[in-house]
Recover the amino acids of this structure.
């Protein structure tokens, strides 16, 4: 009952309430992003969601558009400013995802949506992460965000799906609050670089062992 009906109702109510109550905060962050990082203020990125359906996830930008003498974008680490790191560390860059929650693309709690190119590299068990809506935060992020290895992160996703309940969602919210305010600058590192090694790791494992399981 909870996972099928109540969870979605709570997502709609909470996202509407938060959007209304904190519209002033979104406006302030949007102005600061425009002044410090440029436009567009938001960026949209394709991610797989429930049943692997691709949707566009919204975030505040955290990097500039600085380019080299040939007009090519500089590496992410060179475009990620101190302000961008602050947005990532506090997760303020992710508050536009409330729109995704309201639309039904996402939930407040669930496995974080990763890149579409990762889809061929999940084990059969890890594919369970796509049997629920992806979340603004999840058990993996609440247990260390980018500080845990891929196998562990995905095992947390599976654990969440297999034990989905109101109690589990409350636990994830509490752990997320502790994680956001308890970790160092490491959580604001170049997320693209951290995520980008997943396909490489799994491909190497596949070539070496002939299977994706560890």
């Amino acid at each position: 009952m909870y996972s099928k009906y109540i969870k979605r109702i709570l997502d709609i109510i909470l996202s509407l309430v938060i959007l209304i109550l904190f519209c002033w905060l979104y406006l302030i962050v949007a102005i600061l992003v425009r002044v410090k990082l440029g436009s567009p203020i938001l960026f949209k990125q394709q991610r797989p969601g429930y049943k692997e359906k691709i949707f566009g996830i919204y975030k505040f930008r955290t990097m500039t558009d600085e380019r080299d003498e040939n007009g090519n974008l500089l590496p992410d680490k060179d475009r990620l400013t101190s302000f961008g790191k602050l947005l990532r560390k506090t997760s303020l860059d992710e508050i536009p995802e409330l729109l995704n929650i309201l639309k039904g693309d996402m939930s407040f709690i669930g496995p974080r949506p990763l890149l579409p190119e990762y889809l061929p590299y999940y084990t059969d068990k890890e594919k369970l992460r796509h049997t629920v809506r992806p979340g603004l935060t999840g058990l993996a992020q609440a247990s260390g965000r980018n500080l845990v290895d891929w196998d562990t992160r995905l095992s947390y996703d599976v654990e969440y799906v297999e034990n989905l309940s109101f109690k589990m969602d409350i636990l994830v919210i509490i752990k997320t609050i502790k994680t956001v305010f308890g970790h160092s600058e490491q959580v604001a590192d170049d997320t693209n670089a951290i995520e980008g090694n997943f396909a490489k790791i799994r491909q190497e494992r596949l070539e070496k062992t002939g299977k994706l399981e560890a």
User: Anything to note?
Assistant: Residues 1-209 form one domain.
